[in-house]
Design a protein that fits this description.
The complex is a heterodimer of chains A (about 290) and B (about 325). Chain A is an all-alpha fold and about 290 residues long. Chain A has one domain: MetI-like fold. Chain A has 12 helices and no strands. In chain A, helix 9 packs antiparallel against helix 11. The longest helix of chain A has about 35 residues. Chain B is an alpha/beta fold and about 325 residues long. Chain B is built from 10 helices and 12 strands. In chain B, helix 5 packs across helix 6 and helix 6 runs parallel beside helix 7. Chain B is globular. Classes of the chains: A mainly alpha (about 290), B alpha/beta (about 325). Chains A and B meet through helix 8 and helix 9 of A and helix 2 and helix 4 of B.
């Protein structure tokens, strides 16, 4: 990227408070997660271990000693929220990453080659579209994960990928159909480039921006979907902390010990908001209409 | 049109047609075929600039694409420097492509905004299977110099350039592989008038230096007259008149060519251009008039014109597809098409 273009890009990113907020939220969470996962730094973030039981201070409401309060077993909820972050942040990246990868591959080939490849890919994608994704994913995860507690997280991710890829496949195909008609692709054909090389040098780079925007927007959704899984007990086995599960565990204590559910829920909301705002910002960066304004 | 293909033809087409299937009607139940290029034959000699003139929708760009096999012809054959390119396998055709190139109309969308200029310009070299990086870089630099681009442009992106500069990049891409045949698909119609002349002169200069053959596609009579040795006039997918530039433009014979030329405004204010010189609209490809395709708009049309399609035949030192000039056909059946 040339200097002028990157400065334009930066001005679009930072000229919009919502994008700045989204990026700031994500960066804050990532830093927090990195610190919490690195043992020597853990105590800079949280004073207590997420798994230490301390019945003496059970059911404490939020205070300076326990920012988010403590649960029924006296575990510090802030420590548990921090400990849950690595899983809850990694899962959207893994699920969306795999969905985008599959969608990009299938969608690009379907769109560029057309014919029976396209028909086959689209009809299979339609099959998955026919069911409400959350119901389908929960069913798949419940069936797969019923017998294998240790693999439950993995199966839940699989279920989310299974319902996630059709969207990216359709998105990629639609974009490819458009890009294929661009004169620069025709020029590449006139130059004698092979199909694979045209896909690599001309099609994928133009797809990438759109895919990244939708992937970022989707991260928050997947995060919330996974929390629903955890809520229904389809996540990691206890005592591994998970935000969705913590919300569920606190429900029985509402409205009295509201902090059991409230803070994990708030954290989920902030994360989802961060992804959504950052995604919107990326869309502005990649929007060709905004790029033209110079 | 059974003229033998002579050895000094760089590019020739025989009875070339391009057919598109369109679906209309309820749920696409009606299948129809349209032929934007319908049985066109032409040949471009070595070192010649031939211009195809026509209104938008006359099939002139499609003809250019079909000659380069960027669209697949439905009938006919295309012979490029002695080879029937319809018989070539994909990889053989790709290897040949740098010798038959194209400059596109739109200098914006025809250049990938995500590539460096040098990667755009060198594309035909990579496409033809060249591997030697140093050689590719040298040829790319030479092509850029020939079109008047600064060497520093090579690592920049196209959005940093003006329309005229971009078209130079497009031209550099076309000439980088030393092509024998170049299709110029309205290369100046998206440019400012002052830039148009520069680009046209650049093209003519490159053409005379390289001795390549150019097929110039345009709707602009002034441009056609300026650049071409020979002119072919297209109407509704067919050629209606073809001959030396000075004959066809200086003294048009086909009623369509006449009407088309009379629509060109002149700088002479004493000659007012009539408001409507050609009545009616160009025919739709799905609903062509019977007989001559121009018969519904032609002021000279008579009975036969609405019955039979005239073939391109020589008259007045050129070829014209009009019964006004081969009257003997009035009594004999029109050639089977």
């Amino acid at each position: 990227m040339s200097r002028s273009e990157s400065s334009v890009t930066l001005s679009i990113v930072f000229g919009n408070w919502a994008t700045v907020a989204g990026v700031a939220i994500l960066v804050a969470f990532l830093v927090l997660t990195a610190l919490a996962t690195w043992p020597p730094a853990y105590h800079l973030v949280a004073r207590y271990s997420p798994d230490t039981l301390n019945f003496g201070s059970a059911n404490a409401s939020p205070s300076l000693a326990h920012l988010f309060g403590t649960d029924r077993e006296g575990r510090d909820i802030f420590a548990r929220v921090v400990a849950a972050l690595p899983i809850d942040i990694a899962i959207p990246f893994e699920v969306v990453g795999a969905s985008v990868g599959i969608g990009l591959l299938l969608g690009t080939f379907a769109g560029y080659y057309g014919g029976w490849i396209e028909e086959l890919v689209l009809r299979v994608a339609d099959l998955f579209f026919a069911f409400p994704s959350i119901v389908l994913a929960l069913t798949i995860a419940a069936i797969l994960g019923a017998s294998a507690e240790g693999l439950r997280v993995f199966y839940s991710e699989m279920a989310l990928i299974i319902v996630g890829w059709p969207f990216y496949t359709r998105l990629a195909r639609a974009q490819v159909l458009m890009i294929k008609q661009m004169p620069f692709v025709r020029a590449a054909e006139a130059s004698g480039l092979g199909k694979l090389r045209i896909i690599r040098t001309h099609v994928i780079p133009h797809l990438a921006s759109v895919m990244v925007v939708y992937a970022t927007l989707d991260m928050g959704t997947v995060l919330l979907l996974y929390s629903v899984f955890a809520f229904f007990g389809l996540g990691a086995s206890p005592p591994t902390p998970e935000l969705g599960r913590m919300v569920y565990d606190g429900l029985s204590a509402l409205p009295g010990n509201w902090w059991w559910s409230f803070f994990p829920g708030l954290t989920l909301m902030m994360l989802a908001l961060g992804f959504a705002l950052a995604g919107e910002g990326l869309r502005d960066v990649f929007d060709p209409r905004l790029r033209g304004q110079r | 049109m059974s003229r033998a293909i002579s050895t000094d033809d760089v590019m020739s087409a025989e009875a070339l047609s391009v057919t598109y299937k369109v679906r209309t009607g309820f749920l696409g139940s009606v299948h129809r075929e349209v032929k934007p290029v319908d049985g066109v034959s032409l040949s471009v000699k070595k070192g010649e600039v031939m211009t195809v003139i026509g209104e938008s929708g006359s099939g002139k760009s499609t003809l250019g694409f079909a000659l380069l096999r960027l669209v697949k012809p439905s009938a006919g054959r295309v012979v490029f420097s002695g080879q029937d390119i319809g018989e070539l396998k994909g990889s053989e055709l790709r290897r040949l492509r740098r010798k038959m190139q194209i400059v596109f109309q739109d200098p914006y969308s025809s250049l990938d905004p995500r590539l460096h200029v040098k990667d755009i310009v060198s594309e035909p070299l990579y496409g033809s299977g060249m591997k030697d990086r140093a050689d590719i870089e040298e040829r790319t630099a030479r092509a850029m110099a020939l079109v008047g681009l600064d060497p520093s442009a090579k690592s920049r992106y196209v959005h940093e350039f003006s329309g005229g500069q971009r078209q130079r990049i497009g031209i550099a891409r076309a000439i980088v592989g030393d092509p024998q045949f170049v299709v110029l698909d309205e290369p100046t119609s998206n440019l400012d008038v002052s830039i148009q002349a520069q680009i046209l002169n650049l093209l003519l200069d490159l053409q005379s230096k390289s001795g390549a053959s150019y097929l110039f596609i345009t709707h602009n009579m002034a441009v056609a007259q300026y650049v071409s040795d020979r002119v072919a006039v297209m109407y509704a997918g067919e050629m209606v008149e073809r001959g030396a530039s000075k004959d066809v433009i200086g003294d048009p014979m086909h009623p369509y060519t006449k009407d088309l030329l009379s629509c060109v405004p002149t700088m002479d204010i004493s000659k007012k251009v009539a408001d409507v010189k050609i009545s009616g609209d160009p025919p739709s490809f799905t609903d062509l008039p019977k007989g001559c395709r121009y018969s519904n708009r032609c002021k000279y049309a008579f009975g036969l014109c609405r019955e039979k399609a005239p073939a391109l035949a020589s008259a007045g030192g050129r070829e014209v597809a009009c019964f006004l000039y081969h009257k003997e056909e009035k009594s004999t059946p029109a050639p089977v098409r």
